[in-house]
Specification:
The chain is mainly α and 469 residues long. 75% of the residues lie in helices and 0% in strands. It contains 24 helices and no strands. α6 runs antiparallel to α10 and α9 runs parallel beside α20. The longest helix has 29 residues. The two termini are 32 Å apart.
Length: 469
């Protein structure tokens, strides 16, 4: 009986992806989760005669546990807007674009996408904007589509995975009960080696291939210069943010101060943009106040004269986080129903038969995340379900929660783009105009991350265990 809710969810999500495509997360997935939750409640009621009050309490507790994540997501929305409008992210992009040369294009593409994704916390936005521009540059150099797309996706998902602004990073840390920056630091032990191997392959390939042509990024750089004040002094904000992170300040405090610093910079350096965003005719204190409030909470469009660049500098603010928050609430409802009815434990018994030691437990987590990406076609659902399934087991066996959060990110986050019917795979293949199976062999970081996670667990590197638990 325990498999019924999962089958309902798999069938509904599959139908949603087929019908809605890239818009699945706009509401269809959330409705599917609620329907699957209802199926779980019905099965639990008739098979175990559970009371509604017990079900409701478990669901409520699950949702309340994600309150910090919801607040952080709202702050992330605000920081995405303020860092863009203040010129911080455009400055990073501007200087990053200058390093591209034919011989090092592939490795530069990965590094540039990694940098942008790390700054804005979104692999989707990175691929859909700077990635699209790099596709054109790569084709001009004579590289195959698969190699270009693979280098772009490798960098985008590396940056997304390590960015404190990424919703998947926040989600993996919060659902597993791991502090955000603890989770990010711990991922470095598997993520950095994997990324170094990947960019080494791209570097060797770039010098080995017989490519020709000149990529012209002058128009892109001109658009940034024309729209924003570009200055290396603006990089002080990310530097200060990095210092706060290194000193292990609470993530909410760091994000709030990063927003505050960006607001000050925007008012001092980019006043013309603030005035334009406000939509007011006259300048003044209230006009700037209105403009900055819109940047923090709403969607902003900044015309640059370049359609691709327009997409890159577009921000969504706090309101852009609402679909993700909506999804979290619905997913936690499903998780609460599974927990209250005992169906999650029933599934765990099947999976944990194969999890004896550290390596096998991590491998089981990785395998479950991969299965969820294939079956449910969404990385958010994969992260939340895998974390919910294994959280108690990791704690009971004395493992730190950061091992669970890292295992989920090493698998659920990065492999989602490799599944053609997954929302990530569907989105990236559509945006880049390259079939998923065409770029899949060249997404070295995404392919190697799950393997690295298991290997590091087998070696026992930086894995501590309290045997007394």
């Amino acid at each position: 009986m325990w498999i019924i809710p999962f089958l309902v969810l798999i069938i509904l999500i599959s139908c949603c992806v087929a019908v809605f495509g890239n818009a699945t997360l706009d509401g269809a997935s959330q409705v599917s989760l609620l329907v699957a939750s209802a199926a779980s409640v019905v099965v639990g009621h008739f098979s175990k005669h559970l009371k509604w009050q017990d079900l409701e309490k478990e669901i409520t507790d699950k949702i309340s546990s994600c309150t910090p994540a919801i607040i952080i997501l709202l702050l992330i929305g605000a920081i995405g807007g303020t860092w863009m409008v203040s010129g911080i992210v455009p400055t990073m992009i501007y200087y990053g674009m200058q390093i591209i040369r034919p011989e090092v294009f592939l490795v530069s593409s990965s590094l540039l996408c990694a940098l942008v994704s790390l700054m804005i916390g979104s692999s989707w936005t990175t691929v859909a904007t700077i990635g699209l521009a790099l596709m054109g540059i790569g084709k001009a150099h004579g590289f195959d589509d698969g190699w270009i797309a693979g280098s772009i996706i490798t960098g985008a998902y590396f940056g997304d995975k390590l960015s404190p602004l990424s919703d998947t990073t926040v989600l993996a840390s919060s659902v597993s009960g791991t502090p955000l920056f603890t989770h990010i630091r711990y991922m470095l032990y598997t993520t950095l080696p994997t990324f170094c191997i990947s960019i080494t392959i791209f570097l060797i390939a770039g010098f080995s291939m017989n490519v020709s042509g000149q990529g012209n990024v002058a128009e892109f750089m001109e658009g940034l210069q024309h729209t924003f004040v570009i200055s290396p002094w603006l990089l002080l904000v990310p530097v200060l943010t990095g210092v706060m992170i290194a000193r292990r300040w609470p993530s909410m405090v760091v994000l709030f101060l990063a927003i505050f610093l960006a607001v000050i910079v925007a008012l001092l350096v980019q006043p013309q943009l603030i005035h334009m965003i406000s939509g007011e005719q006259e300048q003044g204190l209230l006009t700037h106040y209105k403009g900055m409030m819109q940047v923090c909470y709403g969607s902003t469009d900044i015309p640059t004269g370049n359609p691709v660049l327009n997409e890159l500098v577009h921000t969504r603010g706090m309101s852009g986080m609402m679909p993700t928050i909506w999804l979290i609430i619905c997913a936690q409802t499903f998780g609460g129903a599974l927990t209250a009815t005992g169906q999650l434990k029933d599934l765990m018994r099947v999976v944990l038969r194969f999890a004896r030691g550290t390596a096998s437990l991590v491998a089981s987590t990785v395998g479950t995340s991969l299965f969820c990406n294939i079956a449910m076609a969404d990385q958010y659902l994969s992260i939340m379900l895998a974390s919910s399934m294994f959280k108690d087991t990791y704690r009971e066996r004395g493992y730190e929660s950061r091992l669970l959060s890292r295992s989920c990110e090493d698998s659920a986050t990065v492999t989602s783009v490799l599944v053609p019917w997954n929302t990530c795979g569907l989105t990236q293949s559509t945006v880049l105009g390259v079939a998923t199976l065409t770029y899949l062999p060249y997404c070295f970081f995404n392919l190697l991350s799950p393997v690295t996670s298991i290997v590091v667990a087998a070696i026992g590197w930086k894995i501590t265990r309290n045997e007394g638990k």
